[in-house]
Amino acid sequence: MVKSMTGFGRAEQSGNGSTVTVEVHSVNGRFLDVRLKLPKALYEYESELRKIAQDYIRRGKVFITINCNRVAGRAESIGIDFGVADKYVELSREIAERYDIDNNMDAKTLMTFSDVIIGNQEDIGDGELWDLAKKVVQSALEIHTAMREDEGVAIGRDIKVRLDTINEYLNRIEKQTPEIIEINKERLRKRIDTLIGNDTVDEIRLGMELALYADRVDVTEECVRFRSHNKQFAREFAHESASGKKLVFLLQEMNREANTIGSKIMDADIAQLVVQIKEELEKMREQAENME
Fold first, then answer.
1. What is the distance in angstroms between the CA of the first residue and the CA of the last residue of the chain?
2. Could you tell me the mean pLDDT of each successive run of 10 residues in the chain, 292 residues long?
3. Alpha-carbon Rg for the chain in angstroms
4. Which H or E run includes 103?
5. pTM (2 decimals)?
6. Which residues contact 284 (CB under 8 A, 6 or more apart)?
7. Could you tell me which of 262, 245, 256 has the C-alpha nearest to residue 281?
8. What pLDDT, in 10s, does the model give residues 202-232?
């Protein structure tokens, strides 16, 4: 199933007097780029968290934020790391003396440093915290994945409509091309007659030249290849492990065929149909670039 690269997931769970909250959000990216914001107690599990994310996400820039807070007995657990506080005060005094400026360090300022206040996070053991955080991360990633799948379904409906529209444009091009070729051949014949006047025309040579012209402007081969790309695109899109990168490549091939069709048939109506095809391809490209 195709998934969008953009999505959001949030999960929260309490255990052993603490609450773990995890938020996952992702945006487009060429490769998988997982960025983590963790409490200190989970730093050692960073590589394991990345592996968990890779089980759910293949491509995109992913941001995972984990917060751990005490929900019971919080007041009793809060304390001050006086060693750290002493260092901040000492450094503040040294800076003031060195640069002959006022020392504005006060208790309120000290309280703003996160490493001065201790005990309001990660009150349970690191192992227990990791077990809880792991479950919440997986829950958030499942919610995140479900949202990306829903968006993928919407993208799929939109792309199917556009593929059908492109096929209809190709039908019209194939239907109109023979008539356009005959009109241009007759126009070319009349122009030659006008240029040479009463001189004799080598009908065999002229017929050969007109046949060569018809072959040069015939777009049957391009339309066949275009339809083949369309079918391949639809198959890839429906595949369980559909790749946005491959879909973008197929769209580039379709666009190349559209350009060839436009350059071979110099006709206003066909040119307009080619423009409409390329507009649909551009919208599909935007969608495909948002696929995982």
1. 10
2. 90 87 94 93 93 94 90 60 90 90 88 74 62 95 95 90 94 86 70 60 61 66 89 84 83 93 83 94 91 84
3. 33
4. none
5. 0.65
6. 159, 162, 163, 251
7. 256
8. 566 656 655 666 556 678 888 889 999 999 8
User: For residues 134 and 136, what is the distance between their CA atoms, to the nearest angstrom?
Assistant: 5
- Per the listing, tokens 């006709």 go with 267
Pull the structure tokens for residue 192: 């030659």
Class of residue 292 by CB neighbours under 10 A (exposed 0-12, middle 13-18, buried 19+): buried
| Domains of the chain (ranges, CATH numbers) | 7-73+125-145 (3.30.230.10), 79-110 (no CATH), 151-288 (no CATH)
Strand 117-118 to 60-70 pairing: unpaired
Residue type at 274 in one-letter notation: V
Residue whose entry in the numeric block shows the structure tokens 């790391």: 81
CA torsion angle 155 52 131 112 (round to 10): -80
Element (H, E) at 147: helix 126-196
